[in-house]
Amino acid sequence: MRYRGRYKKVHRILSRWHSAAFSKKYLLFTNLGISIGLSMLGDTMEQSYERYTEQIHGWDRTRTLRMGISGFTVGIVCHYWYHYLDYYYPKRTFGTVVRKILLDQCICSPLYISIFFLTMGLLEDNTWDEVADEIKDKAWTLYKAEWTVWPIAQMINFFFVAPKYRVLYDNTVSLGYDVFTSRVKYAKKRDPPNKVSSARALDIYNVYKSQNIPRPSPT
């Protein structure tokens, strides 16, 4: 009986917390907390893999924090985007769900990815040209990956999930995608093979010049 009483007490506390967290008053804050937390978790998982494979040698806390901040900005987008879709397309018919999926993939996904890179660029103090180059270099990879995951996931979301749980569902499914996003974001860009920098070429020239060695003719 004593354990049953404790169980009921815990159940009441969790029920009150759940009712408050997913109420209209606090739903935005709940969704932001979920988005921030899972973005940081995804990066932590990716860094754990990179440490295991010896790509990096320690946990970069600043990197994880930046991913969490990006979760805040894109979390705002997700919250209001789902609110917009459910307000203008409240039905759960097949045609309505397909329309929602197409809008989500063609409008929200590019916006989401762009805001992610803009946020990270600001946090890393990059120039606008550097941010634009990174978007050109990496955004298409993320966008292609979205088409392999989200159409089916969003069909389940729009058909079966209650509107107040959409961001929770989105971020739960997105945890694996967050790992992939972290990998793409922090992948090192390799130089093309056999490419010699101008500084290196100047060093080679100075060595030949100082030793009076005839320069090799270009081939």
Automatic annotation (TrEMBL):
Main location: membrane
UniProt KW keywords: Membrane, Transmembrane, Transmembrane helix
One Pfam short name: Mpv17_PMP22
InterPro entries: Mpv17_PMP22 (IPR007248)
Chain segments annotated as transmembrane: 26-45, 65-82, 102-123
Membrane topology type: Multi-pass membrane protein
Cellular compartments annotated: Membrane
Gene Ontology BP terms: mitochondrial ribosome assembly
Superkingdom of source: Eukaryota
Protein family membership: Belongs to the peroxisomal membrane protein PXMP2/4 family.
Name listed for the protein in its UniProt record: Mpv17-like protein 2
Species annotation: Drosophila hydei
Lineage: Eukaryota, Metazoa, Ecdysozoa, Arthropoda, Hexapoda
Gene: LOC111599810
